[in-house]
């Protein structure tokens, strides 16, 4: 029994590691963070989750990566920013679920299209918080449910096998 128990624990850990795998996104891909790029268009077809990382590449001091509230995003106003950087290589890890808003705070650039809204879905490693994975994000909610469902299935399997040990 001890060996099958070890196999089960290994499977369980493997499942959680797979569910928690984070993705790194190069914002704008080959275009980087620049004027003349449609960042709403860039997000289409991409699924973002808590733990994922956004990398903004641009010429140092030529642009900023300014995380703002929704109102700051809508108005292209960087005054009450959550964070601000103009180093040329800004890395942002999505640590909380929900929508994260970024603009360039150089005058005219946000209005010219340098604004990005990304919805981070909850990763389904924690069974207790799977209700959060249905945050509306286009098609993001559906695909993020897959690892959550797998975690629940593994948990149910464990409960069924516990009396055997
Ligand atoms: Cu700019």
TrEMBL record:
Q: Which CDD domains match?
A: Phytocyanin
Instruction: Identify the stretch annotated as signal peptide in this record.
Output: 1-22
Matches recorded under Gene3D superfamilies: Cupredoxins - blue copper proteins
Q: What is this protein called?
A: Phytocyanin domain-containing protein
Alphabetized SUPFAM superfamilies for the sequence: Cupredoxins
> Which GO CC annotations does the UniProt entry carry?
plasma membrane
The record's annotation in PANTHER family points to:
BLUE COPPER PROTEIN, PHYTOCYANIN DOMAIN-CONTAINING PROTEIN
Residues of the Phytocyanin domain: 23-122
Q: Which one of the record's GO molecular function terms can you name?
A: metal ion binding
UniProt KW keywords: Copper, Glycoprotein, Metal-binding, Signal
The residues forming a coiled coil are none
